[in-house]
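User: I'm curious whether this sequence folds into something compact or stays loose and floppy. Could you predict its structure so I can see for myself?
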Amino acid sequence: MRPSGLARGTVLRVSVVSPFPLVRTGVHSLLEREGLTIECGDDGAARPDVVVLDLVSLDRDDGAGLEHTRWAGTPVVGLVPFERDDLARKARERNVGAVVPISATSSDLLRAIIRVLAASEAQAPEPPADRPATLTAREEQMVRMIAAGHTNAEIAAELYLSTTTVKSYIRSAYRKLGITRRAEAVRWAIDHGVVDRPPPPS
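Assistant: Here's the prediction. I'll summarize afterward.
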C-alpha cells in the first residue's frame, strides 16, 4: 500500500549522498516507482528538499559524510548497511531525522521521507504576517532569482531544471501573487523582504 502524504507526480529534489553510484541510482529509481518526479540533486548545486544519506559516509570519525547536509533545516534520511547498528547510532547523534535499512522497500523509504519532511515543516518558523504563505519554496525561489536579475535560462542552468519547468513555476507564482510582469515580481520581492531593498542613489 502506498503511504499517504505525497501525491503522485509530486516534484521532489532529492540529494542522494553515497560513494556508490548503484545506491544513488537505486534510490532515485525506488522513489520514481512510488510516482514521484525526482529532480536529482546529488551535486549539491541547489538546496534539496530532502537528503538520503548512505551511512557508510559516517565511518570517518570527523563526520564528513554529513558535508552535503549543511543547509539549515534540510531533512535527512539515513540508509544503514547490513549489520551496522553503530552507524545508526552515529546518525541519530548527528540529528539524522530517520534511519532505514539498505534493504528498505520503496514504500519504507517513502514513509521515512514523509516523516522527516513533516517534522521539518512542523519546526519551520511561521512566515511574517505580511508575506503570503501561498507560494511554495520553489515558487518563492523563482521570484527571488528573478528579483536578483536572472533570466529564465540562467535560473534553469543554476538549478538544473528545464526552461519549461522554470516557466511553469514562474507562471504558478505569478498567478498566486496576481501579477503578470517581471517588474511586478521584483517589486513584490522587495516589499515582502524576499530580497534586500536596493540602497538609495548617492
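Summary: Strands lie at 11-17, 37-40, 50-54, 76-80, 98-101. Confidence is low (pLDDT under 50) at residues 61-65.
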